[in-house]
Write a structure and sequence with these properties.
InterPro entries: Na/Ala_symport (IPR001463). The chain is mainly α and 538 residues long. It has one domain: Hydantoin permease, CATH 1.10.4160. Helix 6 packs across helix 17. It starts with a helix and ends with a helix. The N terminus is likely disordered.
Length: 538
C-alpha cells in the first residue's frame, strides 16, 4: 500500500514533461529560484569584520568547534584511526553481542518503551560498514567533483590546503556528533531507529537541565535539515548530474534540465520507498564501486603527471599562504577552502549522525570512531586527488585564471565556452584519459543518486521529528523531495550552490552549540568503549 501510494504520487511529476516543451523552462525555474537562494545565502553567511576581512560567523563557529574537539580528545583523528579501521573490519564485533559486557543505557524519555531498548546490541538496523557507506554516500559525492573545481576556481590551488586542514580537524567533530547520535537515539516498538542531532539536542540538553534550549535547537535543526536535504543533498546533485549528461549528449538549453530532473526524480522515488535498510543495501554496493572507479582514474592521471607533482604541491602550499592576485588574500583562500570542505564532508553539520544512529551497537563511541573516517576519505583523500588533477590540467592547458569565479570562459576547439563545476573536472580528466568523460558521467550519476537517496533519509528523519511518523507525513516529504530534484536540474549552478551551501552551513549553528554543551558525555562513552577494546586485545 505504501509503495503504491508513493508511486501514484510520482504521477504528479509527469505533467512537468508536458510543460517542459516550452522553450526556456529551465530559465524560468532558475529565475524563480535565484532570488530566494541569494537572500538565504546572505543571511546564513552573515559576516563580522576581523583584521580587515569579513569572515562568516558560521565558519568561525565551525573552525573553533572542530579545533576544540581535536584538542579536548587528544587528536582523535590520529589516535583513534587504527581503532576505526578495526571496528569497520569487525574485529570487535564480539563486543556487540552482549557477552558479559556492560550494557549502554538509552534514556527512557518521550515514550520510549524500556523492553525495546534494554540491549542496544539487539537494536539498530544496519552494520558498522553499512552505516559508514550510507553516510559516506551522503558526503562523498559531487562536492568532491564539482565542489573542488569551484574551490580552485575561486580560491586557487591554496584552497586545497585549507580543505585538507578542515577535513582533518573535521574528523573530531564527526566523532563527537555521531557518538551522540547513537547515545540519544530513539527506538520505537517495531525496532525502527530514529536518531540524529534533533534527538541528542532535545534529550541531551534535557539531561543538563536545559530542556527549553534543547527543544528550540532541535526544532531549528530539524527545519534546517529538511531544507539541506532539498538543497545540498538533492538540488546540487541533480543540477550537476544534469549538466554532465547535457554536456555529454550535446543536448542543452530549453527544458533539457527539467526533463533530466523528472527522470532522476522517478528513479530516486523508486529507491527511497524502502527506508534505511534499502538505502544501506544499495549504497554499500554503489559507494565502493564508484569510489574505486574515481580513485583509480585519479591515480592514473596523477602518475601520468608524476614529474609535476612537486610543482603542484608547491602551488598548493604557496597558494595557501601567499595567494595570487584576485583570490582575495589569505583569509579569502581559507574561507573558500573551509566552506567547500564543509559542504563536501559536512563535519560539524550533524547530518551524518542521522545515518550512523541506525547502527547495530551497544557502544555509541564505537560508531563515533567509525564516523571519523568519513572526512578523511571524503576530503583528505578524494578531494585532494581531484584538486591535483585539475591543477595538472590547468598547468598544461591554462584553461582558466585562478580567482576568476565559480567558472571561467575558456577557449575550447577554437570557440569560447563557459565551464564551471563538474564540467571543469570532466575536462581535466578527459584531457589525460580520452573518453573518460563517459565513464565519469556514469560515476557522477551514481554519486548524485547515492547522495540523494542518503539525504532523503536524513531529511525524512527530520520531517518525522517535526510532523510525526505517520504515512501521510512520509508521503508529503518524499513528494517535495522529488520536486526539488527537478528544480535543481533546471536551475543554474550559481543559484543552486548559493542555496545548497547556505543550507548545509546553517546546520552548524544549532548542532555545534549542542556539541559544545554535550561533549563530556562523549568522553564517558569513549572511555567505556576503549576499556572494552583493551579487554579484547588482552
Amino acid at each position: 500500500m505504501k509503495k503504491s501510494k508513493l508511486l501514484y504520487s510520482l504521477l504528479f511529476l509527469f505533467p512537468t514533461l508536458i510543460f517542459a516543451q516550452d522553450k526556456g523552462l529551465d530559465e524560468k525555474v532558475n529565475d524563480a529560484f535565484m532570488p530566494f537562494a541569494t537572500w538565504w545565502e546572505g543571511l546564513v553567511l552573515t559576516s563580522v569584520p576581523i583584521a580587515g576581512y569579513d569572515i562568516p560567523v558560521v565558519l568561525l563557529l565551525l573552525i573553533a568547534g572542530a579545533t576544540f574537539f581535536t584538542i579536548a580528545f587528544k587528536f582523535p583523528n590520529i589516535r583513534l584511526f587504527p581503532t576505526a579501521i578495526n571496528t569497520v573490519r569487525g574485529k570487535y564485533d564480539e563486543l556487540e553481542g552482549g557477552h558479559g559486557v556492560e550494557k549502554t543505557q538509552i534514556n527512557v524519555v518521550d515514550g520510549d518503551i524500556p523492553d525495546t531498548i534494554r540491549d542496544e546490541s539487539q537494536e539498530g538496523e544496519v552494520s558498522h560498514f553499512q552505516a559508514l557507506a550510507t553516510a559516506v554516500s551522503g558526503t562523498v559525492g559531487l562536492g568532491n567533483i564539482a565542489g573542488v573545481a569551484v574551490a580552485i576556481a575561486l580560491g586557487g590551488p591554496g584552497a586545497t590546503f585549507w580543505m585538507i586542514v578542515c577535513g582533518l580537524i573535521g574528523m573530531s567533530s564527526k566523532f563527537v556528533e555521531c557518538t551522540l547520535g547513537v547515545k540519544y537515539r530513539d527506538v520505537d516498538e517495531n525496532g525502527v531507529v530514529y536518531g540524529g542531532p534533533m534527538y541528542y539536542l532535545k534529550r541531551g540538553l534535557q539531561e543538563r537541565n536545559m530542556a527549553g534550549l534543547g527543544k528550540v535547537l532541535a526544532v531549528i535543526f530539524a527545519i534546517l535539515c529538511v531544507g539541506a536535504s532539498f538543497g545540498g543533498g538533492n538540488a546540487f546533485q541533480s543540477n550537476q548530474a544534469a549538466v554532465q549528461i547535457s554536456s555529454m549528449t550535446g543536448i542543452e538549453g530549453g527544458a533539457t534540465g527539467v526533463i533530466i530532473g523528472v527522470i532522476l526524480a522517478v528513479l530516486v522515488g523508486i529507491v527511497i520507498i524502502g527506508g534505511i535498510k534499502k538505502i544501506a543495501s544499495v549504497t554499500e554496493k554503489i559507494v565502493p564501486f564508484m569510489a574505486v572507479i574515481y580513485v583509480l582514474a585519479s591515480l592514473v592521471i596523477i602518475f601520468a603527471n608524476i614529474e609535476y607533482i612537486g610543482d603542484a604541491i608547491g602551488m598548493i602550499f604557496s597558494g595557501a599562504f601567499t595567494p595570487e592576485a584576485g583570490v582575495g588574500g589569505i583569509i579569502g583562500v581559507i574561507i573558500v577552502g573551509f566552506q567547500r570542505a564543509a559542504f563536501s564532508n559536512e563535519a560539524g553539520a550533524g547530518s551524518a549522525a542521522i545515518a550512523h544512529s541506525a547502527v547495530k551497537t551497544k557502544y555509541p563511541a564505537s560508531e563515533g570512531i567509525v564516523a571519523l573516517m568519513e572526512p578523511f576519505i571524503d576530503t583528505v583523500v578524494v578531494c585532494t586527488m581531484t584538486a591535483l588533477v585539475i591543477i595538472f590540467f590547468n598547468m598544461d592547458a591554462g584553461a582558466f585564471n585562478y580567482g576568476s569565479g565559480q567558472g571561467s570562459t575558456v577557449l575550447i576547439n577554437e570557440t569560447q565556452q563557459y565551464i564551471g563545476g563538474v564540467d571543469l573536472t570532466s575536462m581535466a580528466y578527459d584531457s589525460v584519459i580520452p573518453g573518460f568523460r563517459y565513464v565519469l558521467t556514469i560515476a557522477i550519476i551514481l554519486f548524485a543518486f547515492s547522495t540523494m537517496i542518503s539525504w532523503s533519509y536524513y531529511g525524512l528523519q527530520s520531517w518525522k521529528f517535526l510532523f510525526g511518523r505517520g504515512r501521510t507525513a512520509d508521503i508529503v516529504y518524499k513528494v517535495l523531495f522529488l520536486l526539488f530534484v527537478i528544480i535543481g536540474a533546471g536551475a543554474t549552478l550559481d543559484a543552486v550552490i548559493k542555496f545548497s551551501d547556505a543550507m548545509i552551513l546553517a546546520l552548524v549553528f544549532p548542532n555545534m552549540i549542542g556539541l559544545l554543551l554535550l561533549f563530556p558525555k562523549v568522553r564517558e562513552e569513549l572511555n567505556k568503549y576503549l576499556s572494552a577494546v583493551r579487554g579484547v586485545k588482552e
